Amino acid sequence: MREILNMNNLIKKADKLTRLGNIEQAINVLDDAENLPLVHPEVYVRKAIYMQLSSENEKYNLKDIEGILKKALAIDDEYINALIELGDIYYIENEFKKAKEILNKAIKLNTSSIIEAVTLMAKCIEESDSKEKAIKYLEDFKKNTFGNNKIDSLIKEFRN
């Protein structure tokens, strides 16, 4: 428990340093977090992001950042933030096949989690209210999630 609190405090400290523009110091703080007995994958994800943001980023190459993200995935191979960031690195490196594989995994994981939560919510509504309200919830969810303007504007952006 104490290690978790210590790690959370180090992440918060790194975030604060980054907001203040002290990115190199933030990276050093996350280096300290890596030495804890228990490390959450978010430590590596944030470190990878900060390395990209660093004004000294010539000292960090994309392969180094890729390695950091792979450390996060070694802890949890389904950690969505790490998958998305690694997909972004592959995209930047023009390794589109790798990017698509990684991002597809992230999308599948996220979609299955969302579907599982929505299904459970609909069951709760059906049990506590009515089947009709559960169906309305599902219809509203579909309309609000997939029928919104974000997807339409993204399609428009790709067409231009």
Describe this structure as you would to a colleague.
With 160 residues, this protein is mostly helical. 81% of the residues lie in helices and 0% in strands. It contains 8 helices and no strands. The model has no long low-confidence stretch (mean pLDDT 87).
What's the tally of helices?
8
Roughly how many Å apart are the termini? 52 Å
Q: What is the 3D shape? A: globular
| Uncertain stretches | none
Structural class: mainly alpha
Mind summarizing the main beta sheet? Answer: none
Which features does this protein show?
160 residues; mainly alpha; 8 helices; 81% helix; 0% strand; globular
In short:
The chain is an all-alpha fold and 160 residues long.
Describe the secondary structure blueprint for this structure.
Layout: H1 2-19, H2 23-34, H3 41-53, H4 62-75, H5 80-92, H6 96-128, H7 131-146, H8 149-159
